Amino acid sequence: MSSSQHPPIDYAETSEQKRLNDARESGVPWKKWGPYLSERQWGTVREDYSNDGNAWNYFSHDQARSRAYRWGEDGIAGISDDKQRLCFALALWNGRDPILKERMFGLTNNESNHGEDVKEYYFYLDSTPTHSYMKYLYKYPQAEYPYWNLVDTNRRRSREEFEYELLDTGVFDDDRYFDVFVEYAKGDPEDILVRISVHNRGQEKATLHLLPNLWFRNTWASEQGSAKPTLHQIDNATIRASHPDIGKYTLACDGASELLFTENETNTKRLWGQDSPSPYVKDAFHEYIISGKREAVNPQKVGTKAAAHFLLEVPAGQSKVVRLRLSAKAHANAFGNAFDKIFSSCVADANEFYDRITPASLNEDERRVHRQALAGMLWTKQYYYFDLDKWLTEHNAHPMLGSGSRSLRNTEWFHMLNSDIISMPDKWEYPWYAAWDLAFHTIALSLVDFDFAKEQLLLMLRNLYAHPNGQIPAYEWNFGDVNPPVHAWATLFLYNIEQELGRSDIHFLKSAFQGLMQNFNWWVNRKDPEGKNVFAGGFLGLDNIGIFDRSAQLPTGGHLDQADGTAWMAFYCQNMLDIALTLAEHDSGYEEIAFRFLEHFLWITYAMDRIGASHDEMWDEEDGFFYDLLRLPNGDAMRLKVRSMVGLLPLCAASAMEPSIADRFPQLAELASLFRKRHPELLEHIAPGDNTFVGYGGRRLLSVCNKKKIERILSYMLDENEFLSPYGIRSLSRYHLEHPSVFYVEGHEYKVQYLPAESNTGMFGGNSNWRGPVWMPVNALLIRSLLNLYQFYGDDFKVECPTRSGNYMTLFEVAKEIGSRLAKIFLRDANGRRPVYGGAKKFQEDPHWKDYILFYEYFHGDNGAGLGASHQTGWTGLVARSLDLFARLKPADLLATSRRDLVARMTHDQVAGKRGDRAA
Question: What is the C-alpha separation between 244 and 755, in angstroms, rounded?
Fold first, then answer.
């Protein structure tokens, strides 16, 4: 694209961008402190030392206040340093709760009718990428928190019923609650100012005990030779922290009534009836505040856990403000005028940063959704620590040490040492990384922090993460499970964005490519059981989408040829081909490697639909759709005719290749020509890729689907009675509401029926549902594929959208329509209601609720209501990328540019604007 086709770019550098540049180029530790605490460390695999592997039962929420963690820490609105050695978070007590509120409460997988679920209301309102400014809101009831009511009622409900939510209990009736806003501002990389504003939304005066906590993660109990850090009182309002690794910090507490100290040690007396090694234990503040036991805290004012106690009387409709300052250097006047000036400056910097990166054409509500989505992405960073070598040894299950034969999860991953800040799907429901989620996270994160996004992709390919055989770890419940191979796509996406800035990071691309090559080989060797370019893979992130549990042994025997697994591999080949060609521009040796991926792609495409009418391939010519193929032990094969996302994903394997490719890569062209001579019938059968059909601008199409297949699949995808929801593309066709797919095996019925909301089965825990709802990540990939196909077909190829409407659109217009429907989930409609909040009156109408956005895991297939994990900004944060995309991208951009993956084009203005002089 020439400069005349693009509006002028403002290259001025924002204050926040300067911090990012200083962190990257000069090592200034602006990111050392951030929101790196988990919101749930209890009930995780890391903390599970049980004999039966039941992590939820082994370490419960009830135990968490009294039991020291081994592998991490959690808290409310918390921060820590980047190795989670020193932690800060809130504790609260309303005078009625049975326990001190130190962490978010939620139901375990067995307690809820739809799997684990947090039962609190909290919102990530703002954050800059260096966390120089952050804002968080927690809504705390003034009445007793209904712990038992939530557990008992949800446990008695069936999977066919709605979940019982905190609002349903009546605890927020008459607005009897506190809005607790927590803000952080950095005076410098190691000077963190804290402002806590407590608003009484009720009609009567209310009292709140507010206890900001400062504590050390307990490393001294488990790490041999580790020195024990200390906290001690300097004066009535100041705590000094001393740690052998990070040095000294002071926490100044303006107006605290008292400072409390104890140890971050387990209360073995309460838990197991055994004397505790120390009289001062983890739950001391609970005992002191609620039970009045003054002897629970250390009178010497020393320990490894401390709190500043503020007793706040808040009048009805009024607020009180508490100020604290955590700093590596002393301040003579920590709370003078400079405190407010720093806060004002950081807020102004955050506004400047988001004003610069947000498209000017977005309206006020779109800008709100865009900013809160990105804030959620930044708040869900977490320090993740897991040393499998140690963990397996402690479980007496290390396979290389002969230390036991007991069955235990993840024994083959003993090489792993994870100790990094990682973008989490949801820090309460999923406080562990998931590989394919993470790839999507980077697409949204690159809008605000390109460096962090690249680091996240490379993490999963490092030796301390990826298995020596090349497999990328899935998630801590089973690192050996298989996620879709989307890292190559994300790598290419980020590289192309950076190339737009004039900074081609070939080192990043080479580093990623090496790890991706190992992973690609693992897929070819492990997931193509018959060597026929047809792939399995198990659940592949789509949980319950199939008739059978695709990760378990089939009740029929035999195995599945998976349409999505095979399509994912075709998609993988395309992205690896693109990366190899980019590297070949610098080293011609990559051309032959590129051809390897081209050849793989062609054979995979052919395997999905061979020449002639066959019943043992995934494409069904009569239906015009792709299905999984069940291969039985006797050699028979049959298609499992479920119209699901599995059959749409082959559309995603589509790339438009520039006409100059043959001239630029002669060795590749020679090898491709030889292949064409040897297999002419194959190339004639699959999507146009030779001289018989040239697309817009002379481009060639590399696609699993030819034009006829595209038209037939889109007729389903764009049918409002099938896949096209008012809020995006459904994961399962609505056709199956009245026409469920049923399969019988030895008298047992296996059925897939359209379920637009939660799952009615316990498959994969029952907390996710791919049988109808709208999921953001696969919608994003479908949008990408439509834009890539538009590059090839241009404006001449139009399809009916919606199907049978008589309205015809180009593929660009279809992509934009889907993006618009996804955005509508979060935006106010003509009646001022947000579909994401469904029938929740409080969220829809109350001025103190209606503009705070939750980014759920998935969405109701008919009405757009949020479902599943309520804080999975992770991949749902892609809505920010979608808003950004269609505010910037025009059809002419796609048709005129020469980039391979042109979705990156929409970031040119935004990223260059924020990078400023570095791009120039």
Answer: 55
Which residues, other chains included, contact 432 with Cβ-Cβ below 8 Å and sequence gap of 6+?
Answer: 44, 45, 46, 384, 424, 475, 476, 477
d(CA 273, CA 267): 9
CA angle 80, 86, 88 (to 5 degrees): 55
588, pLDDT greater than 60: yes
Planar angle of CA 444, 496, 509, nearest 5 degrees: 100
DSSP letter for 303, please: E
Q: Cα(305)–Cα(871) distance, rounded to whole angstroms?
A: 28
Q: Quote the tokens at residue 189.
A: 């990389």
Other residues' Cβ atoms within 10 Å of the Cβ of residue 621: 13
The reply to whether omega before 802 is within 30° of 0 (cis) is yes
Query: For the CA atoms of 292, 296, 301, 306, what is the dihedral angle to 10 degrees?
Result: -80
**Distance linking the first and last C-alpha atoms of the chain:** 17
308 and 212 in contact (C-beta within 8 Å)?
Answer: yes
Q: Distance (Å, rounded) from C-alpha 10 to C-alpha 916? A: 7
Give the contacts of 755 (CB within 8 A, at least 6 positions apart): 732, 769, 771, 772, 773
Rounded CA gap, 900 and 311, in Å?
A: 60
CA distance 263 to 276: 11
Give the pTM. 0.94
What separation in angstroms does the CA of 400 have from each of 355, 413, 469, 678? 55, 11, 17, 49
Q: In the structure, what pLDDT confidence band is assigned to residue 693 with cuts at 50, 70 and 90?
A: low
Give tens-digit pLDDT for 295-316.
999 999 999 999 999 999 999 9
What DSSP string runs through 773-797?
-B-HHHHHHHHHHHHHHHHHHGGG-
Identify which of 527, 519, 526, 524 has the alpha carbon closest to the alpha carbon of residue 491: 519
- Return d(Cα 292, Cα 88) in angstroms, integer: 24
CA dist 586 to 502, 572, 648, Å? 16, 22, 36
Contact 257, 338 (CB under 8 A): no
List the structure tokens of 792.
Answer: 């090839």
Q: How much of the chain is helix, strand and coil, in % rounded to 5?
A: 35, 20, 45
CA distance 741 to 227: 61
